[in-house]
Amino acid sequence: MKIRIQHDKHGFRMTNHTMNKKDFPIFKKNPGLVYLDNAATSLKPKCVIDAVNDYFSNYSANVHRGIYDLSAKATSSYEGSRETVREFINAASTKEVIFTHGATEAINMVALSWGVQNLKSGDEVILTISEHHSNLVPWQLVAKKTNCAIRFVDIDDNGVLNLAQLSKLLSRRTKIVALPHVSNALGTINPIKTMIQKAHAVGIKVLVDAAQSAPHLPIDMQQLDCDFLAFSGHKMCGPTGIGVLYAKERILENMQPIFGGGDMISEVYTTHSKWNSLPWKFEAGTPAIAEAIGLGEAIKYLKKIGMDEIKKHDAELLEFAIKRLQKIPGVKLFGPLDPKIQSGILSFNIDGIHPHDVAEILNGENIAVRAGHHCCMPLMQRLEISATVRASFYLYNDERDVEKLAHGIKKAIEIFNFSH
Amino acid sequence: MNLYRDLIIDLYKNSLNKRQIKNAEIKASGANVTCGDHLRIYLKLNKKGLAEDASFEGDGCAISIASASLLTEEVKGKTPAQVLKWGPKKINKLLGTELSPTRVKCGLLALETLQKGLCDNGYVKEKSTSGMPNSHLTPLPKWCYNSTKIR
To answer: How far apart are alpha carbons A259 and A236 in whole angstroms?
Structure first.
């Protein structure tokens, strides 16, 4: 789909993404909403809501078990979504696509299964200082169990990873490098391809936290070649409660399940059990069927627009936002401030105003942003700040939204200067 | 914007009692980690057991800093038992506004930190409120001292 460029009556550039607002029912009830908290969760298009509804209304049977038609339909929709995900990330096989509750559970599964099996005292896990807590705390849990150590790759003041330091940290002790594709707090797009190559060159496994990249950038497992990849459905127009763990088949074959129960077994005896084949070995119990179907529909929606188009749209909007907010005195922007290496996430602070107060005043203008440490406390400590305000964009945002944000920021500054 | 009245903005920019009390009997730290608010409260009691002086240090939003300013004024001359009876109503009254559910924890940070400090020093709270912050004296993060401004 090519972007049609038009201008609205206020002279702001409109794209077909702008017009995509009509796909999202939330704007019908709240047409003035400026939703800029997409790094936390995205809005849901009607097609996804309809797909979830359709399952619950018309064929809400369990998967993999029933001999009857409804169950067969549920199974084929659920497994169809797995194939949609496989194609989306270009995994070699659906055996490598495990449905989880989200990126957090996916990373925990790797840490608690692969990590506990393969790490021992003296081993090292390399993370980055910009890690979301979901790719840090699971490794701390494993470190407690196995006595392995955790090392951190630092960033510069603009949030760009220190690649030279990664090279230095990689050693015989390193067993895995786990890093975010895109920083959820600063938006930095990390050079993961290079980092994966560096690690693989010395036989070290790599986990990529793609929670912030899968919704915004094209991802190709054959090209990236990472060992593990985790992402959530709800940040990419899908429902909450569904996510994906991708892992290479031969790694999964050797990994022990961490959850036991129905569906993950082939044979059960009083003394032992045999595991089901991949990917079901890692999906104990009734899965999030409706949510998985919804995620499949969300991916179809994104593919219709095109991941390259979304990436381009994010970059253009980010560039516009950087220029617009830089003009406001007292606003300090964080991150690389370069759309080539920054996704549609812009963190900022206003001199003399706490981020929470900024967010509260913006809320009064019907602008939804996030204020806080964004689940990145070590990163905040590294930047020596307590919190930031974060505006994060997606396909339905446009320049008018950024303009309203700039207006809201000016209002916050006015309110806080009022008594002087 | 009802919440950001002149009083609150003014107390945020020109806080009252924002200093250390070295020989304070009660010292307590509290944080709303999700917001990035960090406070340390000091309370000095006189021989009669009345609060003679109170102060705070730290970094936070306008609501938490204004509340800390007002609270450290309000406690002067009061007994620990009186202070331990205060709750959200008191803070709303001091601020002159009804805090929304999302901001109540900002407004209560100073009071709950002080109350926890009192409890840790043997004063008993009659009715315990849940979710009180940990008052153990932890170092304040660097950024609390970084700026000559309030934040």
So the answer is: 26
Q: Which residues contact A96 (CB under 8 A, 6 or more apart)?
A: A86, A221, A246, A247, A248, A249, A252, A278, A279
Chain B contact probe: residue of A334, A350, A354 with most B CBs at under 10 A? A354
Per-residue pLDDT tens over the stretch A55-114: 999 999 999 988 899 999 999 999 999 999 999 999 999 999 999 999 999 999 999 999
Between chains, do A386 and B59 touch, taking CB under 8 Å as contact?
yes
Structural domain span for residue A271: 49-304
Dump pLDDT digits (tens) for A5-56: 566 666 666 655 556 899 999 999 999 999 999 999 999 999 999 999 999 9
What residue ranges of chain A have pLDDT lower than 70? 1-19, 418-420
Alpha helices in B43-129 (DSSP H): 62-74, 80-84, 88-95, 104-120
Q: According to the model, what pLDDT value does residue B35 have?
A: 75
**Residue A44 placed within a domain:** no
Same domain, A100 and A244: yes
- ipTM of this model? 0.78
| Phi, psi (deg, nearest 5) at residue A51 | -65, -40
- Assign A305 to helix, strand or coil: helix
The tokens describing B78, both together, are 């009061």
Q: Nearest CA of chain B to the CA of A235: how many Å?
A: 21
pTM for this predicted structure: 0.90
* Alpha carbons A363 and A109: distance in angstroms, whole number: 37
Please determine, for residue B105, whether its predicted confidence score (pLDDT) is greater than 50: yes
Residue A325 burial class via C-beta count within 10 angstroms: exposed 0-12, middle 13-18, buried 19 and up: buried
State both tokens at A13: 């550039």
Say if B145 is an interface residue toward chain A (CB within 8 Å): no
Last residue of one domain, picked from the residues A304, A326, A355: A304
Is A375 assigned a catalytic role? yes
Q: Which of A304, A334, A357 is the last residue of a domain?
A: A304
Which chain B residues are closer than 8 Å to A357 by Cβ? 4, 61-63
The answer to whether A397 touches A12, Cβ cutoff 8 Å, is: no
Q: Give the pLDDT of residue A420.
A: 41
